[in-house]
Design goal:
- Chain B: It comes from Pseudonocardia hierapolitana.
- The complex is a heterodimer of chains A (302) and B (260).
- Chain A contains 13 helices and no strands.
- Chain A is an all-alpha fold and 302 residues long.
- Chain A has one domain: MetI-like fold.
- Chain B is mostly helical.
- Chain B has 2 domains: 46 residues, no CATH class; 202 residues, Orthogonal Bundle (MetI-like fold), CATH 1.10.3720.10.
- The longest helix of chain B is centred in the N-terminal third of the chain and has 34 residues.
- Chain B starts with a helix and ends with a helix.
- The chains are: A mainly alpha (302), B mainly alpha (260).
- At the A-B interface, helix 1, helix 2, helix 4, helix 5 and helix 6 of A face helix 1, helix 4, helix 5, helix 6 and helix 7 of B.
Chain lengths: 302, 260
């Protein structure tokens, strides 16, 4: 260790100032992030903390709002319904996305581009437009009921029912499942499956014991994403569903807009946020990706 | 033989799922050209009258104009703030960097309804509900992550020796940024800007809480239309939104490809 003051020779002097210059430049550079950090801090972090504070301070200090929610029959019903709905949507999405993503890996480049476009188009287009389309498609005289009648299953009431909401939500969520599953499948080395079959495994066994486990990472990532987004989904359940079948996000909205009960709304929001963060952290650990799950970036669903 | 059958079944399933993905996205287009006063599909007569209503009735037209103006302002603000932040974050190593990265991704992960209620409670106290500033701030918070992600990935695939070359030839740091760095990361900045525009233009949940009857965005107007009225004008509105966002995002995808 040669300190700057003791090494007064010209030969060693230039090095330390160069280092401190880059460090100072680095610190100055960091100031560039300041405006964005201030905006996010003041208008995102502070409101979130305020809401959490409201949940334990209104109307009185304590965890009354949380115990109140846990003992309120309506709230418990809505939470269970939301969890059930999210689970159904997630299963529907896995069942549809897995074969679809697999198909994407075995077709030629041109068809792959078509299949990718079919996933990305709804991923990118207006959620309001699609939800409105589902209201039209699911109405009693709508196309879905006509199709059901044609195969002898209809007419059935769909609009305002949990069945209708699941169908619409699964379509909105499907891209969030297909993209991670496809990403995982694309990374699988086909020769491993060939090797298994070369060693005498039947195709079904080669698939179940080699391919499926390798693709599960993508399924886990997609399923968590869909689960998280479904739990907090507001727009589609509000418009396709009915107030009698409301979900968690609508319950939060009613607490705020109609009852002005910020304490209870805050408690529900904090609970939803904690569940979300736990799920996201879990999947990040599982898939070992840095930053946000890739499929979260660029989608519109909330 | 068996695998041919399997492949056919897979293709059939793929077509069904593809249709399921596509139909609800595109069905608003034929409905918007119907001549009926209901959402009948397929329509029995065709006309442009829903577009006429959309572009003449103040509640729809104002909502469209508000949305476009907001989205333009949000795009400029979010792109400036987000690009500066992404540049700073990618060029400095320091403790607490993970926390900052988390901060920049948080608005993507936190459920929309949680952001909406938190912002609503705060804005109510700060007098920002139903104000243009309130909308701009709320949308900017949601749009910044899309800019930092896009610019960050552009900066990640960037050859730093070009900057060192410029610096060794005597260029100052700002000059190097303007002449070397910025042109090279421009596709990332532009696609971040497009995402910022679409985020603002398409946002529903937070906007529902920030709106006032006097100041609504187009998605909020559409939301109230589906909730309260049977007005096929919404089909024209949806078609305009789908066309605009698809055009913009195709542009962003093209920009990204040219970058690669």
């Amino acid at each position: 260790m040669v300190s700057v003051s003791s090494a007064g020779t010209a030969a060693v002097a230039p090095a330390p100032p160069a280092v401190s210059r880059t460090r100072r430049a680095g610190r100055a550079l960091l100031l560039l992030a300041l405006p964005a950090v201030i905006v996010l801090g003041v208008f995102f972090v502070v409101p979130a903390i305020r809401l959490a504070w409201l949940s334990v301070s209104t109307p009185e200090l304590g965890i009354g709002n949380y115990t109140g929610l846990a003992t309120d029959g309506v709230v418990v019903t809505v939470v269970l319904r939301t969890l059930g709905m999210a689970a159904v949507v997630t299963v529907l999405c896995v069942l549809c996305a897995y074969p679809y993503a697999y198909l994407m890996t075995i077709v030629g480049p041109r068809w792959r581009a078509v299949l990718t476009a079919l996933v990305l188009l709804p991923f990118w287009t207006s959620l309001m437009a699609r939800t409105f389309a589902w209201v039209v498609l699911l109405q009693d005289t709508g196309v879905v009921n006509a199709l059901l009648a044609a195969v002898g299953l209809g007419p059935t009431r769909l609009l305002g029912t949990t069945a209708g909401v699941s169908i619409a939500m699964a379509q909105v969520m499907l891209p969030f499942m297909v993209l991670p599953v496809y990403a995982a499948m694309r990374g699988i080395d086909r020769r491993l499956v060939d090797a298994a079959m070369g060693l005498g495994a039947r195709p079904i066994n080669a698939f179940l014991r080699v391919y499926l486990p390798l693709s599960l990472r993508g399924v886990a990532a997609g399923a968590t994403l869909v689960m998280v987004l479904s739990l907090g989904f507001y727009v589609t359940p509000s418009l396709v569903g009915s107030p009698q079948q409301s979900m968690l996000a609508q319950l939060i909205s009613v607490q705020v807009n109609q009852l002005l009960n910020f304490g209870a709304a805050g408690a529900l929001a904090v609970t939803l946020l904690v569940v979300t963060l736990v799920l996201v952290a879990g999947v990040q650990r599982l898939t070992r990706t840095g930053g946000a799950p890739a499929a979260l970036v660029g989608g519109t669903a909330s | 033989m068996r695998s041919v059958g399997l492949r056919r079944a897979l293709v059939a399933l793929g077509i069904l799922i593809g249709a399921w993905l596509l139909v609800p996205t595109l069905i608003v287009i034929p409905i918007s050209f119907s001549g009926e006063d209901s959402f009948a599909f397929p329509p029995s007569s065709w006309s442009l009258r829903h577009y006429e209503t959309f572009f003449t009735e103040p509640s729809w037209l104002n909502a469209l104009l508000v949305s476009i103006q907001l989205a333009v302002i949000v795009t400029v603000v979010a792109t400036l703030l987000g690009t500066a932040a992404a540049f700073a974050l990618s060029r400095t190593a320091f403790r607490g960097r993970g926390v900052l990265n988390g901060l920049f991704l948080a608005p993507l992960i936190v459920p929309g309804i949680v952001v909406a209620v938190a912002v609503y409670a705060a804005f109510l106290q700060w007098g920002l509900i139903g104000t243009p500033v309130g909308f701009i701030i709320a949308h900017t918070v949601l749009a910044i992550p899309f800019v930092t992600v896009n610019v960050g990935s552009a900066l990640g695939g960037f050859d730093r020796t070009l900057e060192r070359a410029a610096a060794s030839l005597g260029a100052s740091a700002p000059a190097t940024f303007r002449a070397v760095t910025l042109p090279l990361i421009m596709p990332g900045v532009l696609s971040g800007a497009v995402f910022a525009f679409v985020t603002s233009f398409d946002e529903v949940v937070v906007s529902i809480f920030v709106q006032s009857p006097q100041l609504q965005t187009l998605p909020v107007r559409m939301f109230t239309s589906v909730t309260n009225e049977v007005d096929p004008t919404i089909a024209a509105a949806a078609t305009v939104v789908v066309t605009l966002t698809t055009a913009l995002l195709t542009l962003a995808a093209t920009l990204r490809r040219t970058r690669a």
